[in-house]
Structure formats: C-alpha cells, structure tokens
Amino acid sequence: MKPVRIYLTDWCPFCSRARMLLDRKGLSYEAIDVDGAPETRKWLTEATGQRTIPQIFIGDESVGGYTELAALERSGALDMKLAG
Fold first, then answer.
1. Tens of pLDDT, residues 23-36
2. What are the pLDDT digits (tens) for 53-84?
3. I need a labelling partner for 37 at 20 to 30 A (CA). Which of 10, 31, 52, 72 fits?
4. Predicted confidence band of residue 14 (pLDDT cuts 50, 70, 90)
C-alpha cells in the first residue's frame, strides 16, 4: 500500500473531514501540520499549484484536497490509487 500524507491545520474543517475519511477506512497516514510553517506552505503551492489545505498525497502523487479525496472514495478509485 502506498503511503499517505496529509498537509493540514488543526482548525480547518476540511482537514478534519479528510482525516475522518481516512480513519473510517482504517488507513494510516502521516499528518503534517502546516500552521506556522511558511516554507512547507510555499513548497505545497509550488508542488500542487494550490494554496488551500488540506493537500493529500498518495505516494508521490498529489490527489488534491478533501473534495477530491471524497470523490475518489465515492468512485472506488481511492482503493486503486492506494494499491498502486
């Protein structure tokens, strides 16, 4: 299974939703708090073209934020991405 990383803040409701979705699936993931981390936020913007959080990576692939993660789950594509 590919590793999952989620860049987030504690106060973001979409971050909480993304974590709940991953937790419901029983997935382990690395949560990286970007609150007060301007260099990490700058890197995220450069890597994804997005300024919003959360930003979720499966392996080295950026899959977007919560909305995109939920869409992947609804379509069944999330499990395929996780498997490789």
1. 999 999 999 999 99
2. 999 999 999 999 999 999 999 999 999 999 97
3. 72
4. very high
Query: In whole angstroms, what is the distance from residue 9 CA to residue 82 CA?
Result: 23
- 34-41 contact pairs (CB < 8 A, 24+): 34/7, 34/8, 34/9, 35/9, 35/10, 35/11, 40/7
Report CA torsion sign: 36, 40, 49, 78.
negative
Are 81 and 63 contacting, i.e. CB atoms less than 8 angstroms apart? yes
CB neighbours of 60 closer than 8 A, spacing ≥ 6?
A: none
The model's pTM is 0.93
